[in-house]
Design a protein that fits this description.
Layout lengths: L3 E4 L15 E5 L7 E3 L3 E9 L3 E6 L2 E6 L2 E5 L5 E3 L5 E8 L4 H6 L8 E3 L4 H14 L7 H25 L5 H14 L6 H7 L4 H11 L4 H19 L4 H7 L5 H12 L3 H6 L1 H6 L1
Antiparallel strand pairs: 1-2, 2-9, 3-8, 4-7, 4-9, 5-6, 5-8, 7-10
Helix pairs in contact: 2-3
């Protein structure tokens, strides 16, 4: 397989990228020699190798890491490695001046090397980047590469953080249920059926929910409805009775009571006096 190394420094972007790529490469093999770097800002994704582990010396400390893994090479950090068996790797290289911004954005955190799982999503995105490289000098393609590389880095960091911070095996399901609420708050949600699909008993669900959300599920859904009602009152001329029906409330009087409790005014007054509310 061929190696691809594309320099993007002089490729004009059509949009202003926060972290424009300096260079990008797909490497399927390298000559067997010692590689030493001290001035790079690079995210190197080592997907596979016939070797079981990679050996890296970072500021004098040896790291032995199974494949697949990612390593972040930072300016001012002495990094060396060598190998005698082919590797399948892709790297995203940036100008060293972006290091502090990437640290602030939490794109660079310790540890600088970690294992990851090649999910179907990551596999597809890596293949898409390879396809884009075939047209790297075309207008807009460098912009797409900047975004695609950043998206893959974020997915890999998300994996790392989920492994490091994962203490509650139920958190992911709780957040999936919250996401379901966000998509379906206008409907009449059958909570018992939903909890059954996730394997929750009602009592245990409420116990785990309280760990991640201050309001109860009912209050959470009601707040979503109120925010949506406010946006409709602000951005449209839809009658209040129609908003009530769309949000599956009992009746207009119930919606008015909710607004009275939360804002001290009716929905009609909210729409009429919105400018004054903003001033206050």
């Amino acid at each position: 397989m061929k190696n691809y190394i594309i320099d993007l420094c002089d490729v004009q972007r059509q949009f202003s990228a926060v972290f424009p790529l300096k260079r990008i490469g797909y490497l399927y093999s390298l000559e067997n020699r010692v590689h030493t770097f001290t001035d790079k800002l690079e995210f190197c994704i080592r997907c596979s190798s016939s070797a079981k582990i990679a050996i890296d010396i970072i500021d004098g400390k040896e790291h032995r890491t199974p494949f697949p893994h990612i390593i972040v090479k930072r300016p001012g950090v002495n990094h060396s490695y060598s190998f005698n068996q082919p590797r399948d790797a892709v790297y995203f290289q940036y100008s060293p001046e972006h290091e502090s911004q990437m640290v602030a954005a939490k794109l660079i955190t310790d540890p600088s090397i970690w294992e990851f799982t090649i999910t179907p999503e990551i596999s597809v995105k890596l293949q898409n980047i390879k396809t884009l490289l075939e047209s790297s000098q075309k207008k807009y393609v460098a912009d797409h590469l900047d975004l695609a590389a950043l998206n893959i880095i974020e997915l890999l960091i998300e994996q790392k953080n989920s492994i490091i911070n994962k203490t509650d095996p139920h958190e992911e399901d709780i957040r999936k249920i919250a996401s379901y609420f966000n998509l379906n708050f206008k409907e009449d949600i059958n909570l018992e059926k939903l909890l059954s699909e996730f394997g929750f008993a009602k009592r245990s669900f409420f116990r785990y929910w309280k760990k991640y959300y201050k309001s109860t599920p009912a209050e959470y859904i009601k707040d979503l409805k109120i925010k949506y009602a406010c946006s409709l009152l602000l951005e449209t001329t839809i009658p209040v009775w129609q908003i009530t029906e769309e949000l599956n409330f009992k009746n207009v009087y119930y919606l008015c009571k909710i607004f009275k409790d939360k804002f001290g005014i009716t929905p009609q007054e909210f729409r009429k006096n919105l400018g004054k509310l903003h001033e206050n």
